[in-house]
Amino acid sequence: MIEDFKNDCQRAADVLSSGIKDIHIPSEVLREAKGVAVLHVHKMAILGSSRSGHGVVVARLPSGDWSAPSAIEMTGKGFGDEFGYEISDIVYILRNDQAVEAFKKGHNITGGVDLSCKPTLTQDLPNPNTPSNSNQTVAVGPIGRTAQLTATLRSPTAIFTYSQSKGAFVGASVDFTEINQRSVTNAAVYGIGTRGEQILEGQVDMPEYDQVKALHAVLRHAQEE
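Structure tokens predicted for DUF500-domain-containing protein:
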């Protein structure tokens, strides 16, 4: 479990580092973020679909520093005529305290329509999902340095999403996804009984893993650009 946690932290660092360059996540978006979650997700569909993945989430502390990473997981199912397989790295930029609060407690259910027509290997941005259990709005985040970036950053959207996906898909489905804390993994890293709220509020000691340091280094670098 601890090795999985380390791997998730390193993947998050790599995804954010490449995301700034390859999918053009503006450094301004990361500088103003209240939290950041990164998930590595597999989706398989034969008529119905299933989705599973895992990753980590960090939150900005009152001091301006970043919290220790909390382990999270995604599970989901889809209903419809859809066929294929896809692997995605998904970044959630949490833009207000309410969005961070939702990730602290888990059980975040999202629903949305996925219209896919991907008969060949692809890399693209996904359609955004809208959480059904809160008033938080989700949208595909702005990319690059455009004239509209400042206006977009002032929008009330609670969560920006970015994704790099590879897979072959065709069809349409209605997807329902849930994001939860990985309590057993967090217990292995931080101690039995440690909750996601405690981790994201800075109430635990920072793990001395190189992968955690790498993740924090990427986030600090984004703030300094």
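Residues 72 and 143 are 26 Å apart (CA to CA).
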